UniProtKB/TrEMBL annotation:
InterPro entries per UniProt: LRR_dom_sf
Superkingdom to which the source organism belongs: Eukaryota
Originating species: Rhizophagus clarus
Protein name as it appears in the record: F-box domain-containing protein
């Protein structure tokens, strides 16, 4: 068994092994179908063979229903003699929408009534998998088919570990039913196809509330204020188990949930929308009073200028922060305060992307001396004033500090080309730090 586990990614070797004897065949067939059935690099011919095998498992009631609606299944499926040696479908991972679409296209081709027929065929394919897949662990839910309302759903999705929901596509009732069935998700991703998905959020809230051990939550889609308020309330109720959180919009009316993320290790706030003053103040308020003792990864992307608040809660972390990434298109204040907070409280940091002014160069020395595990350092000019570089060779001080105090681990340095550097300072840096990649960024 250990040998077969090592060969899980080696499809050709597994094929060879299954021919050795019946015992090996029984062991390897489930591995092959689980790991390689949905390989998207299959040839057209292989897709046809795979589809034929899977469609052959359709119950007679489904085949009759399809036939009554003018959907003729490939005649080749009649060549398979039942019962087959294995229930291949039970070994497969639950199909993605693209896998189901491939089967549908193989059956219907360029049929004139493609849309209406494809909906029915899609329904019967999903019913088949829901009834046969007994322990689905990962689901990319991107269909309007009410898959949790099909027979067998309570068993199929009971042990779901990772779920990605396209909130503007899924069936609302089915989403609520998923919340009833599935209570032990580890990872939940909320995404959408459209730009303004405001449907089905009641089901999403129920799904978040139902989880007992949710560790990863990513809300990749934008939400409006009304929905955001409800999302925030749900996060406040359940946020104490979350370790990784990604929010793609801070326009959610209240940020009280931040104080509930007591076990957070990775936090990403990512949005480029402009916010009203009250929203920014609300965000800053709860950011400043939140405590993240286990925080390791912080990324804030967008026009929210809150370096002071970030500095305050970095001072309350437990010294485990390894990555800090700040990206914005706004002029920033308190850049030195943030660098100082990191220097004093983040001895394990390996990656830092932040902003700086010439008056902050003095803090870089402390950063380099205290943070001896740094691997990547990216320092961007924080001022938008056009006259910042009036003073010739303003960057020499920064280059000399980097050359003299950088730890051996620091292999990549990216600094703003906004300041002027003398050739002498550049040569001094290259002499001392010849093994470090230095990049000047516009």
């Amino acid at each position: 068994m250990l040998i077969f586990d090592k060969l899980q990614k080696d499809r050709n070797s597994l094929h060879s092994c299954l021919l050795v004897n019946k015992k090996w065949c029984k062991i390897i067939i489930p591995i092959l179908w689980k790991k390689h059935a949905w390989n998207l690099q299959l040839t057209i011919e292989s897709v046809k063979k795979l589809s034929n095998i899977l469609l052959s498992f359709l119950p007679s009631s489904s085949k009759k229903l399809l036939s009554d609606h003018g959907i003729e299944l490939p005649s080749t499926i009649l060549l398979y003699k039942f019962p087959l040696l294995f229930n291949y479908i039970s070994f497969c991972n639950f199909p993605r929408q693209i896998n189901v679409n491939n089967i549908i296209h193989m059956v219907l081709g360029e049929n004139n009534n493609y849309q209406s027929k494809s909906n029915l065929l899609e329904q019967e394919i999903y019913k088949l998998f829901v009834s046969e897949c007994k322990s689905t662990r990962i689901l990319i839910w991107m269909t309007c088919q009410p898959i949790t309302l099909f027979p067998g759903a309570s068993i199929c999705f009971l042990q779901l570990y990772k779920l990605c929901v396209y909130v503007d596509i899924v069936n609302s009732n089915a989403l609520h039913e998923m919340a009833r069935i599935c209570k032990n998700l580890n990872k939940l991703y909320i995404d959408s196809v459209s730009d303004c998905p405001n449907n089905n959020w009641g089901g999403v809230i129920s799904l978040i509330d139902a989880q007992k051990h949710l560790k990863v939550l990513e809300i990749i889609v934008k939400v409006d204020k009304k929905i955001g308020k409800e999302v925030s309330k749900a996060l406040k109720r359940t946020g104490n188990t979350i370790e990784r959180f990604w929010l793609n919009s801070v326009e959610i009316s209240t940020f009280q949930f931040l104080t509930s993320l007591i076990n957070i290790k990775e936090l990403t706030i990512n949005n480029w929308e402009d916010y009203k003053t009250e929203e920014i103040m609300e965000f800053r308020k709860y950011l400043a009073i939140s405590e993240f003792p286990k925080l390791q990864y912080l990324r804030i992307i967008g026009p929210v200028s809150c370096l002071k608040e970030i500095s305050l809660f970095i001072e309350k972390t437990g010294g485990n922060v390894s990555t800090v990434i700040i990206i914005t298109d706004k002029a920033l204040e308190n850049t030195g305060m943030l660098i100082k907070a990191i220097a004093d409280n983040c001895p394990k940091i390996t990656c830092l992307n932040t902003y700086i002014e010439p008056k902050d160069f003095i803090h870089i020395k402390s950063l380099l001396l205290n943070c001896r595990h740094l691997k990547l350092l990216r320092l961007i000019n924080s001022s938008k004033k056009s006259d910042v570089n009036v003073n010739d060779n303003l960057g020499d001080e920064l280059l000399d500090i980097l050359a003299s105090f950088s730890p051996k681990s620091l292999s990549d340095i990216i600094i703003s080309s906004f300041w002027k550097y003398s050739s002498e300072a550049h040569d001094r840096f290259l002499t001392k730090r010849y093994h470090t990649q230095l990049t000047f960024m516009q």
